[in-house]
Amino acid sequence: MARGFLLCRDPRFRADLRACCERARRSRENRLTAAARAELIDDIYRAIEPIDVAGVCDRGRRNWHPVAARDLLNGAGRLGVTESDIAQLLARCGFFPPAHAGVDGLTSDPIGTVGQERGL
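and the corresponding structure tokens:
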């Protein structure tokens, strides 16, 4: 789980975030070259990747971030839970019916056909 607001008690993330923010702030005074901008963006993604449970680092989405159960299921380990735990949570929240969540033994695929219908 998160160690403080914006992971302020996580030394690695705190240092990475601070460095990225400082570089971004300085870029307002001195425009970044294309290579320096790309490097900053890469560093931002590297800082976020270990905690990304929402697919934020998926550059193919081009800054469009739909609600996708698969992202949460893929990030289960980062949250300290299993995919089954996430599937049960999604079923309890009404994201998809329990029969498709793998919570009642009818399917081992937590996404099932309902996930396909929702673009998962």
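(Above: one complete record from the training split.) The radius of gyration is 18 Å.
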